[in-house]
Every structure is written in C-alpha cells, then in structure tokens.
C-alpha cells in the first residue's frame, strides 16, 4: 500500500507542478528536481546494504545512533561532492537552461533539499531494517512529493503568478517541515530500542573506512544505471528549451507507470529467488514468476494501449501545450514494456551471484543511451531523447534476457511460458473468483 501511495504522490506532484506553473517555469523546476534526485541516488548508493549488515546486529539505542551518524556524514559528504561537480558543470555553461540567473538560483536552493533528502533516505533505509513500512516510504519518497503538492496548492489558492525561485523556495520550506515529521518518526523508532547503558568507549562503532569500502563500488554501478534510465533526459539539458524539458519530464514520469506493477512484484519475488538459489532449486524460478510476469504484462499492455488511444487527452490534463509530448510518451512506454515482457531477468541475475553480468549489460546500455542521445536529441529534440532512452532500456532488457536464458534456460517469451502466464491469470481472476462467488452463495 505504501508503494502505491509513493507512486501516487509522485504522479500528483508532477501534475501539480505542470498545472500551476507556466511551461517554461515548470521545465526549469522539473529538470532541476530530476538532477537533484539523481544526485541523491548517487550519494546514498550502496548504503542500504551496508546499513543492513552494520546496524541490524544491535538493539542498543546509543550504538545505533552512533552508527547512523557515520552513514549520515558519509551521505552528506557525497552529496556535497556531487553537488560541487554539478556546480562545475553549470559554471562551464554545459547545461543551457542555467545560463538564466533564476534557473541557477532555483538549482542552488534544490541542492539544499538534496542534503535533507539524502539524510531522509538514510533514515528510510533504517526504517526498512526495522520493517516499519509506512515510515520507510515516507522518508524515501512521499515526504518530498507531499511537500511539492502542498507548495503547488499554496501557489494555486494564492492566485498569484510565481517565478521558479519563489516556487522552489516555497517547496524547500515545506519540505523542511515535512522532514521534521521524519525526525519524529526516527525518534519514536529509536525509543523502542533497549539501552544497555554501555559506556561510549565500549560501543562497537561503524568505522568510516568500512562504510566507504562497502558503499563506494555501488556508486559507479548506480551512475551507470542512472545513465541508462535517465541518460536521455539528463543530456537533453544541453539542447532542449525549458518548455521542451517540461514536456519530456511529464512524458517520462507517465511512461514509468508502465513499469510500476512489474517493479513492485519483482521486489517481492527477489527474496524467493535468493532462497531457491541457496537450495539449488533454480528450475523453480520460472514457475514462481509466471503469475507476476503475466499480471505485469497485462497491466503494461493495457496502459500503453490507453496511452496510444487517449495519450493526448491525458497529456492535456497537464496543460494543452503538453499534448506535443504524445510521441515521446508512446516511445518511452514501449521501452518500459520491453522491460516487463522479458521478465525479472535482472533480479534473477542479481539474486544468483551474477552481478558482474548485470554490470556488463548496464555499461553497454549506458553507452548506447549516451551515443544515441548525442546524435538524436539535436536532430529530433524531445522525441530524440525518448528514442535514446527507450532503446537504452531495450538493450539492457534484451541483454539480461539472453544471459538468463543461456545460464538457466528460463525464457518468459517462449510460447509455453506465455500460455502458462495466461493460464495463471485466468485462474486467478476467473476460476478462483468463480469459486469464491459460489462459496458465498
């Protein structure tokens, strides 16, 4: 439920920005916000796994706090480093829109948010360890999206036009208030831990070097993954105008809904893959995945058909000018559809100690995305960025699909697997539903 709430708030946030701001202002803000979210993902890359190993072993409140502080310092430091790199790129004039003073001021305000968001992400990982799902998703995503919705509501009911700096400042101030709720949730969670009254010098503190060694390798992997998924939109800042960036951002967010159910179900299956792999029951991977792959494919196909038929009407909901992003929406949705129909191949590789294979696929896909972006964006503008992104995703999916098929003989595209997927969906929706109705009668 929390994952659906997170996705729902994220969608409403993007819609509210497009609705209350003119296209140019929305383009500046959404592109800057995308840069900041990428920066936060890079800063916290790998900390989830490290925290799971380092913090999970203790029930002592003071010891937990001391270890959390180490991760907070690490993420804050990495955020500052990546923020400095972004500052250098803007100073060199590589990103076209930041030649405008207000656009650059908006970005610097959002970099303050990056620090808050990065810290909140650490707390979210802690809540995940404690299996506090609602606090986890509030910290990881919902609080920022919720703050954005409130900022848009204030602008709308204030009935006054605002520039991008004023909107960003409003968003930042509300985000600070929402971050306060995260701190209260953390305080409440830590209060449940028993304190063994250990002296400070006896605490087994997490060493900074240990944290760096265990997290830094993931930063590179995360960067490569981001390049594949967001490369087209990231590089578009070098050529596209503010209005075009707004259209691309809306199309990208809408298209990602095509992959939403697949991601949620794949995350649920990941622990099962790991367990079956340890028990040497790899032959059962496909069997336990059929229903989730079938459901994901059905959802994605339905959504992309809706986009094809009603795409312009849906985009008009954001504003009449956003209808120009119709083809970008369809193209990006098609790219995500390929990710769905080949099945959870990436998760299978990761859960069976084939991380190196996934890394190779990501490197190839990111190179494809970058090269195509450099060629297609200047030629075809928004559609060029969409094509580059979709083909990068397709390349990643097909590589992992081929590797899983070769290593384990699992093929979610085979006629046999397709028939089994349809059968599992039929049984779930019709046979089980019929039995339930009969029982109620």
From TrEMBL:
Keywords: Cell membrane, Membrane, Transmembrane, Transmembrane helix. Its main location: membrane. It is a multi-pass membrane protein. It is found in: Cell membrane. The keyword Transmembrane applies. InterPro entries: Poly_Biosynth_Transport, Polysacc_synth. The keyword Transmembrane applies. It comes from the Bacteria. The chain crosses the membrane at residues 28-47, 68-95, 107-126, 138-158, 164-187, 246-271, 292-318, 324-350, 362-380, 386-402. PANTHER family: O-ANTIGEN TRANSPORTER-RELATED, PST FAMILY PREDICTED COLANIC ACID TRANSPORTER. This is Polysaccharide biosynthesis protein. It comes from Microbulbifer aggregans. The lineage of its organism: Bacteria, Pseudomonadati, Pseudomonadota, Gammaproteobacteria, Cellvibrionales.
